[in-house]
């Protein structure tokens, strides 16, 4: 059973942010412009933010949508809300199988834009490719970025975005199995740092008290010595 969940940006947010975002993202076309993906990380078993970029139209027709297929092995997907796109989640059972972005205003060829989503990279995927086929819909026509080339072959005309998964990181902070575990580890670190700072503060106060006490004792000793000398001189 396929279930669709749509997240819509309010008209106010679109009016306030849409124009500014498009102007900020304006850029010349690349010589080999595709729908590409840039991950924040590629380690197996880790969370990574996948940023998809679209920098051109469909042979002169502005872009209206991006339909991104999620690899079957990816079980956790959380799209980032956008001021310029409506976001629709297509699910099969408990798994997100597609994320559909619909532009609030068609994206002209003179501008580029990005969409992003957080995914959990499978733990057993090291050394393999995660492929995210994308269909770019336009006012007229569409372009299917879905072709996959075998390693060593030339890049096809409309390649599908993909990442190559690397070995799992040894650091627990970059390889947490859940977001909750990572948050708990950060909380433990912050508590330890606060405890160390408190201990250091207490040690510093004690040292100052002892130092002041020493000065007082020394001053009293000097006064007593001077008094003793005066008494001896009178005798």
Task: Describe the model.
The chain crosses the membrane at residues 205-226. Residues 169-201 are annotated as: Disordered. The structure is a single chain. The protein is of the alpha+beta class and 235 residues long. The chain has two domains: 2-171, Immunoglobulin-like (Sandwich); 178-235. It has two helices and twelve strands; from the N terminus they run βαβββββββββββα. The protein has helices at residues 11-24, 179-234, and strands spanning 2-7, 36-39, 47-54, 63-69, 77-79, 85-92, 95-107, 113-120, 129-131, 134-138, 142-145, 162-164. The strands form three sheets. It has a six-stranded antiparallel sheet with strand order 1-6-7-4-10-11, covered by helices on one side. Residues 10-32 and 172-178 have low confidence and may be disordered.
How do you describe this structure in short?
This protein is α+β, with helices and mostly antiparallel strands. Helices cover 30% and strands 31% of the residues.
